[in-house]
Amino acid sequence: MGQRIRDFDWAATDIGPPSAWPAGLRAAVQMMLTTRHPVFVFWGPQHRGLYNDAYSQSLGADKQPAILGQPGRAAWAEIWPIIGPQIDQVMTGGESTWHENQRVPILRNGVVDDVYWTCSYGPIGDDDAPHGVGGVLVLCNETTTQMLERRASQAAEEGWRSLFAQTPGFTCILRGPEHRFEFANPRYEQLMGGRPLIGLTVAQALPEALEQGFVGLLDNAFRSAEAYVSNGQLLMLRGADGVTRSTYVDFVFQPILDDGRVTGIFVQGSDVSDRVRAAAALSGSEGRWRALVDNLPGAAIFVIDTELRYQIAVGEALSAAGISGADLVGRNVADTAATASASLHLSHYQRALDGHPFELEHRDHDRFYLTRGVPLQDGEGRVTGVLAASYDITARRQVEEDLRRARAQLDAVLSAAEVGIYCWRLSDDVVHHDQNLARLYGLPESTDSVLERHWEHIHPDDRAAVQAALEAAKKDGHLYIREYRTFQPDGSVRWLSGRGRLQHDESGQPEVLNGLVIDISDLKKLEESLLASDRHKDHFLAVLAHELRNPLAPLLSAARLLGGEPLDVVQAAWCRDVITRQVQRMAVLLDDLFNLSAIKYGRLRMEMGTVSLQSAVGAAVEAALPLMQSRNQRLEIGLPQPPPLLHADAGRVEQVLTNLLSNAAKYTPPGGRIRLLARRIGPAEGTSHLDEVEIAVHDTGIGLDANDCERIFGMFSQVDSAASAGPGGLGIGLALVKGLVELHGGRVSAYSEGLGHGSVFTVVLPSLPEGSLVQQPVGAPVTSARPLRVLIADDNADAAESLSMLLQMAGHVTHTAADGLAAMSASARFEPHVALLDIGMPGLNGYEVAQRLRADPSRAGMLLVALTGWASPDNREQGRLAGFDLCFSKPINADELLRLLASTHLSETLT
Ligand code: ADP
Questions:
Q1: Using a 6 Å cutoff on CB, does residue 22 contact ligand 1?
Q2: Which residues pair with 135 in a beta bridge?
Q3: To test the ligand 1 pocket, which listed residue (627, 712, 732, 740) has its Cβ within 8 A of the most ligand atoms?
């Protein structure tokens, strides 16, 4: 450009040739051509242009080199409005100008280029010029490239700023280690309550963030260059109104790297308060719901969908049953085999899906549950599933069951005990009672009635007493009715006894009377029978006294006769007969009494053997015949042939038959007919394998009332009508018959067509099979004995003497002793074969004598017979131990004794 300037024809211009240029212009051009900085010089009134090489590079072909030396306005026509005023300002002595990056669009290479310049317009002094300014020195720098770059980056920044401004999230950029706000989008500003941010550090702008540790997190991210992410973070911010509010945010602190160095932090996030609060609210309600279900003791909740699958299954009842609710979820109700009542559930759930709520009691895993289900519906009323709640009601069921059982037991016990209970409400006279009471009163089978109804069922004779007891109970609170009667529908009567207690209401007024009624009919019957038997006993005692007294008069007469004048043979015989007869009569009486009590106490000893029915009947007839003859009665006997044999005690069978024949004689009027008929019958079914014999005694006597047929076999039982009919007795004969027959395993009964129609008394006894042989016939005549020496020891001299006489008459030799010691000494001298020893003797008693005799070996063969008032099994046993061979009850049956002596095989007999 130096060359071009030198070559230019300046002289042709108003500037003139360089040689004439003023010093200022020369100096400026010189400086211009030596610097490499772009420089342009406007000179003179026409602002002719000079410029250097550096400047020329900003010009296009249109201007280079054409504008050199040209007037400024022409050369820079397109930008003259921009630069013209600046040039004028400087040329007129104004201040120099300075423009950075000024847009000056110049025509370059045919197009108007957006060109940016940073330049200064300064004066070049010239003393001759107006204002002392000859030209303008333009120092300039084209900054178009930088400006375009900046514009681009500004556009980008604006782009992301507007982007961030529109994002729903909040964003800011923090610069430097102190986190200075460089940018914050409106959402961020809004979040921060619109307080000033840009240019301030976080700590300055948001002191609460510093307190809450956010600055520390920023420091970390800045130092570590690692992003920090947080969700649902609570942020407490003070609003413009000074109130601190909680906000929940999700955010990222993203370090901004520049050349690998962290220069700032990009903060980006969103306000999630609503979400967090909704979730919290949701989890709060669900939490409460679950807590409720989980803590409901013994409960479980199910939600079933329309496909019958468990959607929810929770609750303590499940875990208690060992079921995992989670395992049930998703499974079909039908498939839950673990549930015993699955099919039951299935049908109910199906019903619920059809819109019907249900209630179901079921048993699963050995426990009882109550399940209630309701259909779940959506907003439009469509069923979307079933909500079901199950409660464990095992304990309740147990209590109910216990109560039911206890009630049933109580009912059973009350019913068994014939006890009725009731509750009488005084206010309206309604009586609530149980079935037992209804039965006892003969009321219809209801459980409520009015008191009025009860009166109809109470015996008229007892109503007053019952009424009085009820009135008294209302006053003193206790009810006691000893006994009263009610009518049954069939007209029969029950005997009842009642007790009760009055119950008062809160105000102390009598409210209800709770009571019970006991059936005492049986007790009443027992009482009556006891009273009757007491009467019988009294009667018996009177008769017994009479019976015992009767023999005394003849005995006394006989005694007087014997004690007076010497008697002739006939008189003596009469006396003997009287005494024998009366003693026998008393002996029979006493024997009967002893036997009865022995039977009663199970002490009667039986001498069982083979007994010919024929001989037993013979003996009985022999005993009863005199009475029959005296009453002119006819007796017929009919026995089967061959006569049966019995396994029995001969004496007892005789006794039984004698009793029956005697009764027949007694209770049949003179001239009547009595028949004894026996027959074999087969063994009683199922009871015995023995054959049996039935012996029936028929008479044509007074007969019996059907009601008495059984009763007469009781002790002291007599039929009133019979008393007048015959000689009467003690009322123990038939009781004895029954006892003896039963001891033989037999049975006895009475039958009559009615009073005045005669009676039949039947005895059935076991018999030996037909064809059995008599081995040891009993009842054979007493054969004369081989004479024996018999010692008789008894402190009752009469007894000893009479026995002695009896034995002597049979041919034996006797010796009597009055006590034990006498017996001992007598036996030493007399050497008896047999000793008959009374047990109750002074000095040595019978047992002691027997022991001493037995102790002497020389008397080993002696037969020792005990004589006792009562040959009880104990006495017999004691006698056996003392050494007795036999035991006889007093008075002694003479025949039996003689038979015994006759059959005694002794080594030595008298000759
Ligand atoms: P007793 O004859 O001593 O009264 P029993 O025991 O022998 O006692 O008889 C009891 C009652 O049975 C008698 O009082 C009588 O009323 C009735 N009785 C017994 N045998 C007959 C009979 N053959 N005919 C009618 N009644 C009888």
A1: no
A2: 43, 124
A3: 712
Structure token pair of residue 715: 């002790």
Tokens in use for 680? 């074999």
What are the tens digits of pLDDT across the range 782-805? Answer: 334 467 899 999 988 777 877 877
The predicted-structure confidence for 621-651, as pLDDT tens digits, reads as follows 888 888 888 889 888 888 887 778 898 998 8
Q: What whole-number distance in Å separates Cα of residue 194 and Cα of residue 27?
A: 60
Asked if 818 and 849 touch (Cβ cutoff 8 Å), the reply is: no
> What are the residues whose beta carbons fall under 8 Å from the beta carbon of 641, sequence distance 6 or more?
none
Residue with CA nearest ligand 1 atom 16: 719
pLDDT number for residue 781: 35
* Residue to substitute in 596, 657, 667 for testing ligand 1 pocket (most ligand atoms within 8 angstroms of CB): 667
pLDDT at 688 over 70: no
Q: What is the mean pLDDT of residues 593-598?
A: 83
Count of other CB atoms within 10 angstroms of residue 175: 16
Assess contact for 185 and 170: CB atoms under 8 A.
Answer: yes
Query: CA–CA distance from 347 to each of 334, 355, 373, 643 (Å)?
Result: 10, 13, 12, 85
Judging by beta carbons within 10 Å of its beta carbon (0-12, 13-18, 19+), is residue 697 exposed, middle or buried?
Answer: buried
Q: How far is the CA of 578 from the centre of ligand 1 (A)?
A: 27
pLDDT digits (tens, 9 = 90+) for 221-261: 999 999 999 988 888 888 878 788 888 899 999 999 988 89
How much distance in Å is there from the Cα of 664 to the middle of ligand 1?
Answer: 8
Closest-CA residue, ligand 1 atom 14, reads 718
Q: Which of 617, 623, 684, 677 shows the shortest CA–CA distance to 650?
A: 617
- List the residue whose alpha carbon is closest to atom 4 of ligand 1: 731
pTM, to two decimals = 0.40
